[in-house]
Amino acid sequence: MRNQFCIQKGIVATSFFCLFTTLVASAQTAPINADTVKAGQYDMGKMWTFDTPPADYFKKTYGFTPDEKWFEEVRLASLRFADYCSASFVSANGLVMTNHHCARESGTGVARKGEDLNATGFFAKTPAEERRVEGLFVDQLVKLEDITKRVQDAISAAGTDNQAQLQAREKALDELKAEYTQKPGWKGLELQTITFYDGGRYSLYGFKRYTDVRLVFMPELQLGFFGGDPDNFTYPRYALDCSFFRVYDGGKPLKTTHFFKFNPNGIREGEPTFVTGNPGSTERLKTVAELELDRDLRLPQMLTLLRNRSNALQAYNATVKSDSILNEIFNLENSYKASKGQLDGLRDPYLLARKAAFEKQFKADAAKKGLPTDTWDALATDVAKLRQSFNDYAYLAPNPLSLGETATFAMTLGLIAEAASFNPQVMEQARGLIDELPRPKSRALETAYLAAHLTEAQAALSNDDPYVKAALTGPDGKTRTPAEAATYLLTNTQLTKRDVVEKLLGGDAKAITQSTDPLLALGRIGGQRFLVANSLVRDLNTRDQVLRSQLGRALFDTYGTTIPPDATFSLRINDGVVKGYPYNGTQAPIMTTFAGLYDRNYSFRNKAPWNLPARWMNPPAELLKQPMCFISTNDIIGGNSGSPMINKNREAVGLVFDGNMESLPGSFIFVPDLNRAVSVHAGGIVAALRYIYKADRLLLELTGK
After folding, report:
1. CB 290 within 8 A of CB 120
2. What is the domain partition of the chain in residue ranges?
3. Partners of 505 in the beta sheet?
4. Which helix (H) or strand (E) holds 363?
5. Calpha distance 78→403 (Å, rounded)
6. CA angle, corner 663, sides to 662 and 668, nearest 5?
7. Residue 445 CB: number of other CB atoms within 10 A?
């Protein structure tokens, strides 16, 4: 049935619609024959580097030839926004465009007494009203240098010991940074070493850092994050996820010739689009064995953790109503949805078969070049060992997000006591913990976190596990629920009292090992086991860093720059086209309009998170027909938030802020059939500024009108 439908509708066989239909009808569908599946041309993505810009590829694919000047101007107009987002210059006067969700913390941070910028938004009607954001910076990449040979020579000279190789690599990178700090043209720049292909290539980047950054415009939270988490990673989409800042230099707006002119009419179906930004992290070079570990253990554990902690925070925030807690919830929900999409992709037998097909072809091509092919087997051996240690490493780690602050402190003390049995000097190093006593937000939240942890440990480790037994067995010998155990442990612990902790850390480890504090007793059991697991995982990770570097070097030696490296939060340029896709039994339009925003608002009867601020409630008729968001086949990932979407003329036609649900497996494979980047339309930004915010000063700067 699935194959017939796909053929009749002309849907490409690799489309997610067909794949999801397969999963639904799995009981009636023959299993995929992995031997017949082939890797896609762009499975490893399109995140090209500016070190080796893909001019010939662009010419062949899109019929235009960008020269060195084109790539240089694009690079200099692109920015890194703090250490978590992307941005760009969009005027000659230092105007910077990025997402609302990138600017949310910075924007609300400049609110004055009595202001609620989440509710009202912000617009500086005059230059004097632009507000400086303390601590915010943007980085412009101005220098690039290939340092591969120096680093790889140092690694080779270190011999075969894994730790020695890694130390030699770090030493070489540090020496290069120190050396280039004194070189003409590099002085005064922020220097960063960039690793490509997991060590197959290395570069040194020099950034011009601007630290006087001022808020110019930010919409209300309800527009910047319209639809909230339910609409996150979906399309069609209706969010005005944009903000504007300005860079000042010497107390005056920066004068720059490197910027993207605004084009509010530059979107047409089939039109080539280019995204410049800093994609955070992808894992497309991972082996099938590593991906199976993620599928079976790592991601399921992460999803359970994120869901339970988000639920606890939402219950807590219902009573305190804190913006900072709300941001924590947003981040957890965003991470949950992203991780869920990755897991769904890894559970798709077709996508994993495609990864296996690429791995098989890669091995064959590497062998033809005389390169070693035993790296995959070595990584598979390590993965098998990691599986055996996963539960102790994941569930007994001293992590406040998992255990809460107080239980994490107890687990840390347990670790210290165990480590001190091998090295007594550990106790001296641990004395500083006296000044780091747990200061939880609330006892209720601590209890909820610890109860969630015990529930998760019970499910993963079993009821017969010594740690679980110790946690859930009460003083009367009866079994308690995780919630009851959490309440008892936190009620009866003394680890939040300074005098108690001073005694525990004041001498040797005996005070810790002999303490009868119930939470510390549990922390000793968990800490001891985590220390063993962590030691094994640390050694395996050290070895695997070297193995992945060998794999990355083999990838580059085999395919060169025809395959781009994984994302590393370094500046990239990727390409795509404006294109719709089939979804939910119909067709997704290439763009949405403000009319759709109001339809969604009315359909949900103005309830959160689809409610609108008062100023948006009676729109002029002309606004309704204006474009709002659009989609393209560009290859993006977290970190690309705030990236400009440009055309061949280096004009800003949009602002990337999300991907669709089908893009979420992009962490390990890029499948462009239904993968879509979602952007705010430049015309939509202009329309909102004109019809709603009456932001004439900003409109004139962006459009000249």
Report:
1. no
2. 48-137+211-278+571-703, 141-210, 399-534
3. none
4. helix 349-368
5. 40
6. 115
7. 20
pLDDT value of residue 441: 82
Q: How far is CA 279 from CA 109, 282, 615, in A?
A: 25, 8, 35
Calpha distance 70→67 (Å, rounded):
5
Looking at residue 302, its amino acid is M
List residues bridging with 645 in a β-sheet.
Answer: 275, 654
CA 331/CA 343 separation, integer angstroms: 18
Q: Is the pLDDT of residue 5 over 60?
A: no
CA 479 to chain centre: 40
**Apex CA 457: angle with CA 451 and CA 458, to 5°?**
90
pLDDT digits (tens, 9 = 90+) for 434-465: 888 888 889 999 999 999 999 999 999 999 99
DSSP secondary-structure letter at 580? -
**Sorting pLDDT into bands at 50, 70 and 90, what band is 322?**
confident
Model confidence at 97: pLDDT above 80: yes
Q: What is d(CA 358, CA 354) in angstroms, rounded to the nearest whole number?
A: 6
Q: How many angstroms from the chain centroid is the CA of residue 176?
A: 29
Fold held by 48-137+211-278+571-703: Thrombin, subunit H (2.40.10)
What is the maximum alpha-carbon separation in the chain? 78
- The DSSP line for 343-358 is HHHHT-HHHHHHHHHH
Phi-psi region of 274 (alpha: psi -120 to 50; beta: other; left: phi over 0): beta
Structure tokens at 324: 């900072």
Torsional sign, CA 694, 133, 681, 70: positive
Q: Taking 60 as the threshold, does the pLDDT of residue 4 lie above it?
A: no
CA distance 190 to 172: 18
Query: Phi/psi class of residue 94: alpha, beta or left (left: φ > 0; alpha: ψ in -120 to 50)?
Result: left
Contact indicator for 218, 117 with CB cutoff of 8 Å = yes
Residue 452 confidence (pLDDT)? 97
H/E stretch holding 134 reads none
* Residues 610 and 604: beta-carbon distance below 8 Å: yes
User: 595: buried, middle or exposed (CB in 10 Å: 19+, 13-18, 0-12)?
Assistant: middle
CA 424 to chain centre: 40
Q: How far apart are CA 705 and CA 701, in angstroms?
A: 8
Quote the tokens at residue 232. 């996150």
Between strands 212-218 and 131-132, the pairing is antiparallel
Which pLDDT does position 433 carry in this prediction? 87
**Could you tell me which residues are beta bridge partners of residue 132?**
214
| C-alpha span between 242 and 593 (Å, rounded) | 16
Which residues are within 8 A (CB) of 376 and not within 5 positions of it... i.e. 6 or more apart?
287, 289, 359, 363, 551
Q: Which two tokens stand for residue 530?
A: 């985590």
The CA distance from 248 to 411, in Å, is 47
